[in-house]
Amino acid sequence: MNSDHISFISSPAKTVAAAAFCLLPLSTFAQQEVSSDGLFTQARTTAFENKDYPKAIALAEQALEKSPDYTDIAVFLGRLYTWNDNPADARKVFTDLDKKQVTDADFYLAYASLEYWNDDNTKALEILDKGTTQNPDSEALWLLKAKVQNSSDQHLEAEEAANRVLQINPENTEARELLVRLNEITSKNAVGITYSYTHFDKQFAQDWHTVGISYKRVTPIGSVILKGNIANKFGETGTQAELEAYPKLSDMFYLYLGAGYSSDVGIFPKYRTGVSLNANLPKSFEAELGYRQLYFSDNIWLYTAAVGKYYKNFWFNLRTYITPGDNNISHSYTGTVRYYTKGAADYISFQAGTGISPVDNRSNLLENESYKLKTYKIGAEYNFSVKTTNLFSLGAMYFNQEYRPNTRGNQVDVTLAYTKRF
């Protein structure tokens, strides 16, 4: 083969190689020239999907070098420093943004969260005050403000902030849960009166009437409630005194402690006691585990467990009482669905279940072990407030009970209640 032929064959290959060589730097340069938006997207993916905060920080810093006035990237970089436990670097980013007079809600939320998580509630509230002034309709800012105020024992202010969240979004689950808890402690005092009427179609000839009065006092360690009850059952009248307390153990846990005494055994138990451990769990769940004890002529022990969940305007709860007996174990189950119409004291609830529990007006029926027979119940309750300090309640419950083997009867309970908070 001659040299001309060789040159003819190799020339196209040389041309292609030369073109590829010339294009290679352009291709590499194009790959390296990622926009600030592209780097921002990569940083978010690296942080949220891979949880690699150092790498996400490097990407966000690179993006911010390209676009120094890109507020969203700067706020995200501050968040990344916060999550990576670099509060000093995060604080520098946020103070620089503050000097630039940035007023975005996301900036205030990120900055206040940094201070809240680092236990500087005073600084967090200072930031949130500015944030809510600049962004009065920011649901997230008002919610964080309610949490910080609650953590600082500013319960009245926290209640106002939580109510503001629900004005913006009535279906905010966290605000609803917080408001219900705050409702129990914002009023230092409350007095209440309750009347219950019970009618049996077969089991007993006479209707039952029960009146209860109560006084509640909120103390630094939790609520204390003193109760007095008077009832007419089986044609006889009796009285009972009760004392209940809800001491707080931590932000998550609190106790229920209860005791009662009556000299009119049969109408009421002679003694009653109860203890429960309650927990406010993440994801708006709550739980309870404890016991109740009733003494008529012998002790009756009931063990209780409950789980609850807040979801938007709803509260769901399932409770059971388990009572060991000589021959078997009795079970009582009650499911409750509550729908909040406005604040913490304004709701409609529905209940359905089986068995008798110690909180039923007819718990004295436990004495003769009729609780081991089959009982079904269904009911509803309506609660509403007037000017926030006047609370009204109307409830009704229907029971269908096998009070003797293969003999069933019906019962209707109607309850009216009024509470004055001050």
What would you say about this model in short?
By secondary structure, the chain is of the alpha+beta class. Helices cover 35% and strands 39% of the residues. The protein has three domains: 1-31; 36-183, Tetratricopeptide repeat domain (Serine Threonine Protein Phosphatase 5, Tetratricopeptide repeat, Alpha Horseshoe), CATH 1.25.40; 190-421, Porin.
Account of the 3D structure:
This protein has a 14-stranded antiparallel barrel with strand order 1-2-3-4-5-6-7-8-9-10-11-12-13-14. It has helices spanning 3-32, 36-48, 53-66, 71-83, 87-99, 105-117, 121-134, 139-151, 155-168, 173-183, and strands at 189-200, 208-219, 222-233, 236-247, 253-261, 271-281, 285-295, 299-311, 314-324, 329-340, 347-354, 375-386, 390-404, 407-421. The chain has 3 domains: 1-31; 36-183, Serine Threonine Protein Phosphatase 5, Tetratricopeptide repeat; 190-421, monomeric porin ompg (Porin, Beta Barrel). It contains 10 helices and 14 strands. The chain has 422 residues and is α+β, with helices and mostly antiparallel strands.
